[in-house]
Amino acid sequence: MTALLDFVSYSDWVLHTLIWMPILGIVPVLLSNEQRVKHVAFWWSAVVLILSLGLWWAFDPTVGGMQMESATPWIESWGVNYSLGIDGISLFMVMLTTFSASISILASFNYIQDRQRPFYALMLILEAGVVGVFLATDLFLFYVFFELTLVPMYFIVGIWGGARRIYAAIKFFLYTALGSLLMLVGILYLVYRAKMFIGVPTFAYSDLLQIPLSGVEHSGSLVPLRLHFR
User: Is the pTM of this model over 0.85?
Assistant: First the structure.
């Protein structure tokens, strides 16, 4: 298996594919009729799941830190890069996400009868966002992917939820909006400290980990992140 993955240069493209393939899947989903759309969405997500399984063989557990890293300049004046990577924790989280997405779509077959195309399109967007959260090695990119997950979740709850779905959707929006703002404050403070320490702004995890923070600064910068995920 490892030889096959090396032959197709699996490590060079798989992380990008796991994010963008679900997004590309929106096109065939929206073009499908109501009878076939659920099957198109499931098999599309199943292909993403199969591709993610190769990470098990491509990842080297004897090597510490990030692997399969790639970085492309995005907003250079801010020090933002489209950078991805994977470690031992995100390896399992990505595989769990692709598995859960396929199972969730399959489980919805008997429950989602109305507006199926937008539902399955939102499910694929949600999958892409969650995978992106676990693969991003740039804090700005992480924030973008995290916010991306909130959009489909809001509409899924508000449209296909239970009897009190409108109330639940509004409450979800208010909590996540406040939490996102607090998390952004924490991120911007870390970037500010990075600019003071390094001399240039950066959102890269590897750079932010090198910043010397006092106990108060460490706690203060992490509080917004903790409040957001609470």
Answer: yes
